[in-house]
Amino acid sequence: MNDHGHDRDAEMAFAAVLAEHGFTAPEEIVADGKFHRFDGPDDRRGQRNAWYVLHADSVPAGAFGDWKNGTTGKWHGQPEKALTKADRKVASERIKAAHAAADAERARQHASAAASARRIWARSRDADANNGYCRRKGVKPYGLKVDDRRDVLLVPLYSAAGELANVQFIYPTGGKRFKAGGEVAGCSYCFGGEPHEDGVVMIGEGYATCASAYASSGYPAVVAFNAGNLLPVARTWRAKLPHAKIVMLADDDHRTQGNPGLTKAQAAARAVGGVVAVPDFGEDRADDASDFNDLQRHAGIAAVRERIETALDGVIDLSGPQTAPAMDSATVSRADGCAESADAASDGNVAYDACDDEAAIALLATMDLMQYDRVRRAEAKRLGVQASTLDRLVAAVRERAGGDADLFAEVEPWPEPVDGAALLDEIATTIRSFVVCDVQTAHAAALWIVMTWLMDAVNVAPLLVITSPEMRCGKSQLLALIGRLVYRCLTAGNISPPAVFRTIEKFAPTLLLDECDTFMRENEEMRGLLNCGHTRDSAFVIRTVGDDFTPRRFSLWGAKALAGIGKLANTLTDRAIVLPMRRKLPHERVEKLRHAGENLFDTLSAKIARWTDDNREAVRAARPALPEALNDRAADNWEPLFQIAGVAGGAWPQIAQRAALHLSGEGGEVQGIGGELLAAIRAVFDTLKAQRIFMARLLDELCRDEEAPWATWNKGHAVTARQLGRMLAAYGISSKPVRIDNAVAKGYEREQFADAFARYLCSSPESPVSSVTRLQPNTGGGLSVTEGIFEASEKNASVTPKPLLDKACNRVTDGTGEESRKVTGGATAKGIDREGGEL
Fold this sequence. Notes:
Elements: H1 3-20, E1 36-38, E2 50-55, E3 61-66, E4 72-76, H2 85-123, E5 125-126, H3 132-137, E6 145-147, E7 152-158, E8 164-170, E9 176-178, E10 189-191, E11 200-204, H4 207-217, E12 221-223, H5 230-240, E13 245-249, H6 260-272, E14 275-277, H7 292-299, H8 301-312, E15 331-333, E16 339-341, H9 342-347, H10 357-366, H11 369-383, H12 387-402, H13 420-434, H14 439-451, E17 463-468, H15 475-483, E18 489-492, H16 497-507, E19 510-513, H17 524-532, E20 540-545, E21 550-555, E22 560-565, H18 570-573, E23 576-580, H19 600-621, H20 632-648, H21 652-664, H22 673-688, E24 690-694, H23 695-702, H24 721-729, E25 736-740, E26 743-749, H25 754-760, E27 832-834
Parallel strand pairs: 11-12, 11-13, 13-14, 17-22, 17-23, 18-19, 19-22
Antiparallel strand pairs: 1-2, 2-3, 3-4, 5-6, 6-7, 7-8, 8-9, 10-12, 15-16, 20-21, 24-26, 24-27, 25-26
Helix pairs in contact: 4-7, 4-8, 5-6, 6-10, 7-8, 10-12, 11-12, 13-14, 13-19, 14-20, 14-21, 19-20, 20-21
């Protein structure tokens, strides 16, 4: 077999091993002995926390891992027994080198993130109690700062050596994230004074929890930032303070399977000889109450202090022991009371007491990577599962404990000022490099992408709707590209209505929804949620929460993009900038998104971040002139994009106008079913040159068009008179007796539609003049026939005389006035009345 075939076999075998461990292998695995990164199973697109190194020559070997969930693994191309001693040595050295390369890359990321964190911290101002998050939580910002450029609260993370390693960003709505690539494990933030060697120190998950505990007790507090970090932080502080009393401030996650907040606080307390304080909410506990900050707002600061003092006094009110004596290094405490030998763990032979699966997995999730790797196979065998299955279970627990730390990557703004027009040109050019689309589509998408970074400066949030008539027209490609550039991208192929408002409330993301045609068609609630997020002042819904059904307001304010096949609901597209896509022709060539330059989108995102930071207030103050050809709703949709184009300058104000007219001008105006009906009726009147029409004839004419919905409107059958009347009643139009020739029946006169045509339809050629014949108020009398008509009836009074009191008839005009006299040549009863010809 040639070298290429040998490499290919190794690459395929290695891909299978990655899949076994829960990875989605990159499309192209390269056996070149170099360090490669790719998206792991828990990453959002572009985070690339997974890595691999693969050799495929005479001794095929490789290693892989995931920095986010702690998974690591190795691979040999041959069975261990088939390797010679020299081969085993080569394979072992290669695997060690791969792990060393991964560690070096991780260290480089940590160093870069730490440098960025120090810059952010240095340029930020001290926080005060008026900060939105602190006001909402009822706590003070002890030593924290505020980054005004992003309007976020900053919490520092210090390493065990006391160096600033990272920062946590806390948004006014409560959303949290860390500096991308920064160190979190083992880092903490201590406030409230320097802990004494024999004093009390409290350790909790979140800042608000620790702030409430400190305000109530006065003991120094340490923020560990997530449940999975409680154990390493507790060990760090135990090493610093061997004689101090450590109080673990547990979150009681009673609604979460396994209660990780309480379980991990207990495990950490036992590992360091501390105690656990647990909030007690009583019988009237709110469903979402879990931590000491919730307890402060529920029962007051005194209730928080009482629970801490109770823990220090050794009072136990939970099932099972909460306190334990300080243990030596030979014992690692189990969260559920079981113990394992540390020496046995290092040998890979662990003898556990009888513990349930959930508790075992919770403990494994608290171990560091080296310890877990030593025991994973033995534990998997004991639990009766494959090691790869155990890896996924442990990773899921770690992810839940880690929260949303790495959900959104931090974008460091470009170091130099950015020209707005050049930036928009660059974004539009990039879009057309990867997607076949009209230039106006690329321009609109570029403006909308920048808008997502300025949601605090605009008042309208138009949806971006990407549509196509068929599959493989580039919708998902365009959505994926947009996702790499928008602010705080969160992509979903399906989502429930409650998840929409809870996700927006918690994360304030740019929400990208693909495959909307599969779950939006009959989903009225979803459409309602997306509709009400259109303008800032109405972007709220009220839902009840908790056992007592407490009303709560959720925000829906944020940028959202939808992609799907076919036409979405009119109420959505009316609030959207619609980008129609088409299938590319054989001669049309674009680049593949996966082959994009490594720094292309990072560079563009950094430039967008800088430009929007520098021009936010200018965009907020902009009041652009909008094209009169746009209807009111379209003008609303395009206003924020015109604000951006105007501030960017250059040719972009004109570019934005051309894109708006092309995509949302009157010719492409979204029309609801009522507007479609009015347009069809106007076409019937125009085609027949009629001023009156019977209901039956109108229904026949409407159903002649096979492409229109009217022939199958009634569950596959033609629309009925009752249904037609109900739809027209919404416009204030009702059928009435009309007279055509010698017949009188229910129908309509054209002038009844004049107001609706003017308000809801585009302008059209001037309608035929009104007939001068009027239905008379008396019935039962004789008839006289009109002998002429007016050609300029608006300037001449009707010549039809009022009926005599003793003549119960509908008389027909026998004169025409002064401007012209045309004689009607005859009359037939065809259900219409028109001028100058056959009836």
